[in-house]
Design goal:
Number of helices: 6
Strand content: 25-35%
Order of helices and strands: HEEEEEEEEEHEHEHEEHEHEEEEEEEE
Number of strands: 22
Largest sheet: 8 strands, antiparallel
Shape: elongated
Length: about 450
Amino acid sequence: MHPNGSAPPLAPTRRRTVGVVIAAVLLLVGSLLLAHPDRADAAADPLISHGKPATASSSEASGLGPENAFDGDPATRWASAEGGDPQWIRVDLGATADVTRVKLSWEAAYAKAYRIEISADGTTWTRLADETAGNGGTDDWPTLSGKGRYLRVYGIARGTSSGYSLHEAEVYGTLDGAPPQTGAFTVVAAGDIAAQCTASDRDCAHPKTAALAQKLNPKFYLTMGDSQYDDARIADFRAYYDKTWGAFKDKTHPVPGNHETYDPAGSLVGYKTYFGAIAYPQGKSYYSFDEGNWHFIALDSNSFDQSAQIDWLKADLAKNSKACIAAYWHHPLYSSGGHGNDPVSRPVWKILYGAKADLVLNGHDHHYERFAPQSPEGKATADGITEIVGGMGGAEPYPIENVQPNSQKRISGEYGVLKMDFTDSGYNWSYIGTDGKTKDTSPKYACH
């Protein structure tokens, strides 16, 4: 294990003296922190590499891509091709950053010698640290100083006959010019969007919802599945969705619905081909990201019966540091529409409820509906999860069929989008129709 990066090992004859000095210093620091507990985390810079785009010189297999090293999941990993030097892995931090710390968690295939480098343009690199006698495990470099947008781990010599393999590469520091990670922001959300029609068709709704969504100019967009009908082929994405909601694809955080699984080329093939890393930022069809004081979790409800996603969700929630939590996927646990309640979502609700999640957004039923905060068992409770069904993005409306307990408002037949307003400590929203008029306004909710 590499405790400090560049510090040389202590000479044997000096260890006892230095140990006494270190103990005294630690005692002094501890007493200061007890006297001033608010200073304990003052010097800790935030993690700035989680979920950011990554590239590498090579990957051993498609499931061992570089994005795995930045997904926050210790069970995944990047692995380079075997038997060749040098190899590298790079992350785009998204903006110029002052990097102060890098932590590398190696798999069994570790680097014996490597450099940590930083770059403003991804072409010219400046060395931050050198390792010449690595022995695997975890390498923590806590006192780095470098400025740039791109960070690279450049492997020079392998520690084994295999390639290089990292479970996690964590970059800490501060981003220049980035908006503060606190404060108010707006999100536009909808599900069930692009029917196979265009603006030349008078009754085609998704061009109208797209125009409304773009006019609202939110921080980003959420889509709750079934973005493209009927079988979500890549040709249909390009012919319909791309012509409307595709105008702001780069600001969209999508999830798949059941129609994305119907593609004759294979389940989610058209969806993944169209959205690419936007829908798979962490190498999976589910992922998470942060904005302000909120943690957003994008889930694939087509595979709620698979343990991999459930295990990932638990791990993701365990390491979340944000005060407020919102999750979104396609199939609602509760709905008064034609599809009705879908129990496939109940285990996920239980996990989210246990983590004090605040908000769930769904689609699937083609209407708008909001529920009072409730438990996974459907009991109204102040510490419950607020659910919204927002499936009015453009697909043919479904009627209200069986009003569920705790349903507070239902609208069918009027297309529109959700305008979600988030603050550091709460949220509220409006349902806005394509005519520009507000059809419903929620209460204001505080985060749990």
